[in-house]
């Protein structure tokens, strides 16, 4: 394998890794944005109930 080809191949591999990581981050951001949109359309009573359940159980207390 020529040094030129090896350099190009390594460059492509790095960019593929970067692209894959960006896609994963993009999916994570889309999920967080969807969660926020759903929360914004939730009724006040449902928000209060959800917060009470989270307080008691500790489920869903991850910071976003």
Describe the structure.
By secondary structure, this protein is mainly alpha-helical. It has one domain (3-57). Helices cover 83% and strands 0% of the residues. It has 2 helices and no strands. The protein has helices at 3-41, 44-57. The model has no long low-confidence stretch (mean pLDDT 80).
| Beta-strand content bin | under 5%
Q: What is the number of helices?
A: 2
Structural class of the secondary structure composition? mainly alpha
Euclidean distance between termini CA atoms: 47 Å
Low-pLDDT stretches = none
Tell me the number of structural domains: 1
Mean pLDDT, all residues: 80
Backbone shape: rod-shaped
> What does the largest sheet look like?
none
What radius of gyration results from the CA coordinates? 21 Å
**Strand elements, count:** 0
Provide the succession of SSEs.
Answer: HH
Q: Tell me the helix content.
A: over 70%
**Subunit organisation of the chains:** single chain
Layout of secondary structure:
Blueprint: H1 3-41, H2 44-57
TL;DR?
By secondary structure, the protein is mainly α.
Q: Key terms for this structure?
A:
about 0% strand, about 60 residues
